[in-house]
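# step 3/5: fold
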Amino acid sequence: MIKPRKALENISPYNTDFYRENWRLKLDANENIYGCANNILSAIKNINSEDVSLYPCYGKLLDKISAKFSLNNNNILFSNGADEALNILINTYLEQEEELLSFKPTFSMPTLYAKALGAKTRYIDYDEKYIFSKSKLKENINNSTKLIYIATPNNPTGEVVKASIIESLLNEYKDVLFIIDCTYINFSFNVAFEDYIDLAKKYNNIAIVKSYSKDFAIAGLRFGLTIANESIISNLKKVISPYSVNMIAINCAMMIISDDKRIEEIKELNHSAKELLEKELIKAELIPYPSEANFILCDFKNYCNFYYQKFKNNGIITRKFSDSSLSDCLRITIPTLGGVKFISELLIKKDVLVFDFEGVIFNSEELLIPKETFEELSKKYDLVIYSNTKEEIAVDLLKKFEIEKYFNLICYFDPQSENDSMPDAKGVLNLINNTPNKSIKFFSANLKNIICANIAQINTIGVISPNMDSQSAINNYRHLGTGHILHEIKNLEYLLEGIEKECKEQ
């Protein structure tokens, strides 16, 4: 087999969806949820035969952008989204012995492109979440630093870096090329795209990159641009494909470049919904970080996996991170006000029902509780599974009976992996810590789990499984002081009604 360059061996590809899922709210990719303007669709419908059969010409759009921002045509380069622009900049200016520097977390593609070249990459950790630090950046610049990537607003943290700060860095580090990614700039009320363009007019060590995917809702068209001095643009043209932007994207870009009214409307809608979402997240005792973009990064604390799955179960997809520094965070694209209301309803804490996987939900591979029961319970309670079964086996069974969508958290625990005398206690405590709740009721047929739940002061219900000796099970459960005993799992809903009635009477 032919091997790729060694630099690619330890790089994971950026995976994209093969098929579009029918989400109620698709909030994982910062796409514009309001959709594109009608004039974009008109431009697509009016594509003529020559637009398709001949290579594209970019002159009219270059003239329009040059006039809007007081630039020369030689200061502008179009690209297939901002991703291609970043790739071309890195391929043009970064040698293998040189370094790309950026704060972390940020957009991952620049680092991926640099690593693919075999060049050096280095991340700077924030001192304070998430505030750009000029002094921290300066401390990390060394003789190997050739490129510095700064996104403003940054993805996924949402903070901006003002043009005045960048200008001071341009003056001090004249041998470093600063790549300024302004993809989300039009959502900000505190900075303007023109502020950064002015820097590109004055300095020869800065390149401004912008995608129009987010603000003007043309992600599917892939249109971006780079603004820099003539020398930089000339060098980029040596590397970029000559016709990388198709004529459909060019014709649509002609419609959006001067559509300031549209972006102001989107900005206002985004701002109103963002303010409300932030309040709802705070009300739920979570930690949303200030954002100047069309998304919010929120620390969901120990409940991140729970809420991520709960959102998915209710038709909402958000961005979850593999990066350990963001393991408790979700990035949420700002929805409409109606979408915020729906999310706020899901953030309300409910009573939680925890079911042992073995002996309560399943007996061997037999489903003990009908799917319809879980469907009804999920409308009133948050449902959680506690399982000692291997994850792949449990997942296969849940999918087989189509009940996985009713559970917001599946807590897997392997007692063989611990040396603790009561390893299950740790699993039960983790389950409590990772589940937001008003109260928890634990349905179990496992005496050890019941002991652990009692220690954790969880209300336990002993379940008599089909393969148990009923009288022995009742004696054991009574001895352990379980709150209730469920003789037949089919009576689950009746038992819950009785427990609720008892609570009201008390």
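# step 4/5: annotate
Residues 59 and 73 are 8 Å apart (CA to CA).
# step 5/5: archive (pending)
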